Amino acid sequence: MSVAAVEISGLVKSFGSTRAVDGLDLRMERGSLLALLGPNGAGKTTTVEICEGFLRADAGSVRVLGLDPVRESSALRPRVGIMPQGGGAYPGVRADEMLRLVASCAATPLDPAWLLDVLGLAPVRRTPFKRLSGGQQQRLSLACALVGRPELVFLDEPTAGMDPQARRLVWDLLGALRADGVSVLLTTHLMEEAEALADTVVIVDHGKVVVSGAPQSLTMDETGNAGLRFKARTRLDTALLTAALPEGYAVRESAPGTYVVAGSIDPQVVSTVTAWCAQQGVLPEELQVGKRTLEEVFLELTGRELRA
Ligand SMILES: Nc1ncnc2c1ncn2[C@@H]1O[C@H](COP(=O)(O)OP(=O)(O)OP(=O)(O)O)[C@@H](O)[C@H]1O
After folding, report:
1. 18 lines ligand 1 (CB under 6 A)
2. Looking at domain 6-219, does it have CATH number 3.40.50.300?
3. ipTM confidence score
4. What are the tens digits of pLDDT across the range 102-140?
5. Which of 11, 22, 125, 300 could form a disulfide with 207 if both were Cys (CB 3.0 to 4.6 A apart)?
6. Is 86 a pocket residue for ligand 1 (Cβ < 6 Å)?
7. For the chain, which residues make up each domain, given as ranges?
8. pTM of the prediction?
9. What angle do CA 244, 245, 250 make, to 5 degrees?
10. Which residues share a beta bridge with 285?
11. How would you label 143-163 residue by residue, b for 16+ Cβ within 10 Å and e otherwise?
């Protein structure tokens, strides 16, 4: 098997009595974009910081481009770009000075002026860092992570706090990087970001992987169809509803009070479901035919909200 961009197995990291990462496994292929998604405190930043070599794992193994991020950090550093959560810079440094400084440390940097332009920062290139807006500071941090032409970039919530227009610029740039064969591992709270950009989405909760896969495959039901969902009181007799449907359909209560009918949904199936509910004196609320969102995938798997 070829060397992965990132390979993590059985990763554990605790802070005092808090187990931030609890046996996490993940493999990210070279040239792909992987989005780590999960609620606050799920262990995403801790995992990324271990990959970056800033934190040591308590147990498990981590390989980044085939190397140990702590013991082989000097070999790894020139090949990896990092954008930490919240960014940061000398407050008085101007945007273009900052980027040129970082570029001067790289063997074959990208053109800083081009990068500022692509990220919509050309008009503020002479503005001191502390006077940039939050979204502009974020974009400058991203530019700093990318200017060294890294093979792999770690981006911790790269578009947090950005307006939709700035976010779109970043998405376009990340798409272009991926097309160029750069590997990108990002964390995000934005489902639409993960769905729009990622080859692989890894949903993390309590320091473990809950589910992973291509966004398309996660949002389809288990039969590869869009499926039908509705809400009603808990503990409907799903076996009875399954029996009312043609062969090949399956109904389950994916979370308390949320029902999923898996299979190819046509008008007849919708009519059968609503007629069955009427017979039971049940009102099917939020009845919906179509792919699940990643939010719903998480809710169905954990019974909790992803954004919580
Ligand atoms: N340096 C630290 N000292 C103590 N506890 C920490 C430290 N860093 C993280 N934690 C705890 O570890 C858990 C995981 O935190 P982490 O920052 O990895 O989560 P996250 O998924 O990145 O969350 P968010 O989406 O809010 O950034 C949390 O309970 C957090 O409070």
Report:
1. yes
2. yes
3. 0.97
4. 999 888 999 999 999 999 999 999 999 989 988 899 899
5. 22
6. no
7. 6-219, 228-290
8. 0.84
9. 110
10. 231
11. bbbbbbbbbbbbbbbbbbebe
